[in-house]
Design goal:
The structure holds two protein chains of two kinds. Chain A is of the alpha+beta class. Chain A is 56% helix and 19% strand. Chain A has five helices and four strands. Chain B folds into two domains: 99 residues, Orthogonal Bundle (Rna Polymerase Sigma Factor, Chain: A), CATH 1.10.1740; 83 residues, Orthogonal Bundle (Arc Repressor Mutant, subunit A), CATH 1.10.10. Chain B is 70% helix and 0% strand. The chains are: A alpha+beta, B mainly alpha.
Chain lengths: 115, 199
């Protein structure tokens, strides 16, 4: 019985192809790593990147830019500096007694702020 | 001599102790994402699995791809492995892969279990063994291909590795005696096929 089995096995033996190993490990590199575990490990990184992208996008959105006003501050020393103020800051400066007027160069979008 | 890839060589030199571990211990390591253990398991089972799938499907080229599928599944499902016989587990995966392939090719038919249980088992005579062994490789492969899928599955499992009939029974979800009947039936069918000269 044993001999029959061994003889038959020997007759129809399938030799393992040497290239098969390389093909398998190449495929393993491509597909094997796609395990749920690895996806889970990368998930926080993707979330952080997504949040950063969204944050930057919102900060630089056109709507936000419209609310920003360019203010030119003229100091006695003739040194000019420009800062951008949102509407809340504009009101705050007005309350503090600073006079402002529209900057012609920016076609009404900016204000002069005189100290 | 079995082929050895660079990856296997690296594992053999860097962690020779892994080759002393049992399959089950290696699987436990693999659950902790130890890829070296996976490499050892691959080295141990690639040849017998490839051979068995080749006999099951009758196609060498398909066997390589299905063997790759089996190992990828082992890696991807490593966290679902519960302590049990690794050999049975991996061969079950392989059997399912082979069955899926055969089903797609519409070669898989459901066998009537009752007809197998009632067949008395007599050890097949030496003349039958001799008749089978006298065939050329291509004829033997063709003969195995002619066996009904379930009989072929039992026969090739019996042939492929050191499986007891009880283990084959577990794999085929039948009793050990039924598995023995299936193997016996395979030999009988082969004998009849070769006697009739249907090749």
């Amino acid at each position: 019985m044993k001999n029959f089995k061994q003889e038959l096995r020997k007759k129809i033996k399938v030799e393992h192809d040497e290239g098969a190993d390389y093909r398998f490990w190449a495929r393993f590199k491509r597909e094997g790593a796609k395990s749920p575990l690895l996806y889970r490990a990368w998930a926080p990184v993707f979330m952080i990147l997504l949040c950063a992208f969204l944050g930057v996008s919102i900060y630089h959105s056109p709507e936000k830019n419209q609310q920003m006003l360019t203010v030119k501050i003229e100091q006695p020393s003739e040194i000019e500096s420009f800062i951008e103020l949102d509407r809340e800051s504009e009101e705050l400066f007005a309350d503090l007694g600073y006079s402002m007027e529209t900057d012609d160069e920016t076609e009404g979008e900016g204000l002069y702020l005189f100290l | 001599m079995s082929s050895v890839s660079l990856r296997s060589l690296w594992v053999r030199f860097s962690s020779p102790a892994l080759y002393e571990l049992t399959d089950e211990q290696l699987m436990m390591n693999l659950k902790d994402d130890d890829q070296k253990s996976f490499c050892v398991l691959y080295d141990r089972y690639k040849a017998p699995l490839n051979q068995w799938i080749s006999w099951m499907t009758g196609r060498k080229a398909v066997a390589e791809e299905l063997t790759q599928d089996v190992f990828l599944k082992v890696y991807q499902q490593r966290n679902h492995y519960r302590p049990q016989s690794f050999k049975s587990w991996i061969y079950t995966i392989a059997r399912n892969q082979a069955r899926d392939y055969l089903r797609k090719k519409q070669e898989w038919l459901v066998e009537d279990e009752r007809s197998l249980e009632v067949n008395p088992v007599n050890d097949i005579d030496d003349i039958a063994h001799e008749l089978i062994l006298r065939q050329e490789e291509a004829q033997l492969r063709a003969g195995i291909d002619e066996l009904s899928p379930r009989v072929r599955e039992a026969f090739t499992l019996w042939l492929a590795d050191e499986w007891s009939f009880d283990e084959i029974g577990v794999m085929l979800e039948c009793s050990g005696q039924a598995a023995k009947n299936l193997v016996h039936r395979a030999k009988r069918d082969l004998k009849e096929w070769f006697s009739a000269g249907e090749f």
